[in-house]
Amino acid sequence: MIPTEDGHYADVDEAEYHRDRGSLSVSGAKLLLPPSCPAKFREAMDNPPPPKPHFDFGTLAHALILGKGPEIEILYPEVHGLKEDGTVADVPSMTGMWKKAAAAAREKGRLPVSSEDYMAAQAMRDAVMAHPVAGPLFADGDAEVSLYATDDETGVRLRGRVDWVRPGQLVDLKTSRTANPDELAGLFFKYRYMMQAAWYQDLSVTSGLTTEKPEFIFVCVEKVAPYVVTVVRYDDEALAEGEFMNREAIQLYAKCKANNEWPAYSDETVTIGLPGWAVDEEIEI
């Protein structure tokens, strides 16, 4: 069940958490602000997109590293990926047998994964646990803690789900194409992770989980061998920007909800110019 009282909870079902339409998450906050808009937020709330299979690997890695998540069902090419002549298909996951087995697993609430992906996720887990900083972070703590609080200014109910909670720290696990620190600043900005960090820090206090803002840590692990791990955190300037954007999103949500109006980008004709990178270039038509 979805909690009705503010607080922190360790037993909220993940599917129930994501089905909650009575509170605002940081993912929703991102959809309200540019480059998105309230109309897109509303569409996502009214017609939630179905789970995308390409997210399954990240879910698998989280389950193995955090020790909490859906039950895993491993599919093997030599068992579930056969062609009509009994030989293993070049792409086992495209066979009827595989698709049928995967669908049956999902109907039972399980996560179907290939044996290859399972071994890769195990290697990612081992890399994280062997890292001198990341490993100890996951040595003690609680996984998948759900936080709920009511915003004092607007009365909007807020929620968040932290990957890992330990004394004085909140830890978020990111499976990524790169763990190169030189690339993470741009990648993190693209996905507005400064909003996530600030959101959870504030929610940790307002939900009663902590009395002071905890440190927010990202553990990034690459999805291909050798599964490089990097631990990063935002500086104060980035966290302040995230907090500012979160406040904008909460206020906008409250306004849209009160008026039952969820605007798109603009109702008027917009005059545009050349993109900055094209100003000094010759454009051929």
From TrEMBL:
<dbReference type="Pfam" id="PF12684">
    <property type="entry name" value="DUF3799"/>
</dbReference>
<feature type="domain" description="Putative exodeoxyribonuclease 8 PDDEXK-like">
    <location>
        <begin position="25"/>
        <end position="268"/>
    </location>
</feature>
<protein>
    <recommendedName>
        <fullName>Putative exodeoxyribonuclease 8 PDDEXK-like domain-containing protein</fullName>
    </recommendedName>
</protein>
<dbReference type="InterPro" id="IPR011604">
    <property type="entry name" value="PDDEXK-like_dom_sf"/>
</dbReference>
<dbReference type="InterPro" id="IPR024432">
    <property type="entry name" value="Put_RecE_PDDEXK-like_dom"/>
</dbReference>
